[in-house]
Amino acid sequence: MSDEEHHFESKADAGASKTYPQQAGTIRKNGYIVIKGRPCKVVEVSTSKTGKHGHAKCHFVAIDIFTAKKLEDIVPSSHNCDVPHVNRTDYQLIDISEDGFVSLLTDSGGTKDDLRLPTDENLLQQIKDGFAEGKDLVVSVMSAMGEEQICALKDIGPK
């Protein structure tokens, strides 16, 4: 045994905690899956039986939860797929800055200032209009694989 102390510094994030493995054959519609490194919501799953010595294959059609792009993947049903940890958190909207960032109130009483306004025109307009009218707004923030985006809006009444 040596008396030396070893210190390891990790500069890279392995990304292991952002996803977990799940067998392809058990992933269902409305579930989540990682396709081409993007977190997606499954909109269609079809399973094909293959030949004598082949595996059954799952064909996934999914929509990227942040960009709304359609992605497809075919995976043997016995293989593992990455499934993203997807969280939804509600925050109260405090302010909208000139450069498109929002200021949100967290449950602990602090503020979260690193989120941009959503790119979805309809949602963007609802947030801006509601904020201009002085309504108390609560936004739902979806987070997965190190990305966050405002995905929904609730009006909890006037101030």
From TrEMBL:
Changes after translation: eIF-5A seems to be the only eukaryotic protein to have a hypusine residue which is a post-translational modification of a lysine by the addition of a butylamino group.
Biological process terms in GO annotation: positive regulation of translational elongation; positive regulation of translational termination
Bias kind Basic and acidic residues: ranges: 1-12
Annotated segments matching region Disordered: 1-21
Keyword Hydrolase carried by entry: no
Stretches assigned to coiled coil: none
Entry superkingdom: Eukaryota
Record-given protein name: Eukaryotic translation initiation factor 5A
Natural source organism: Genlisea aurea
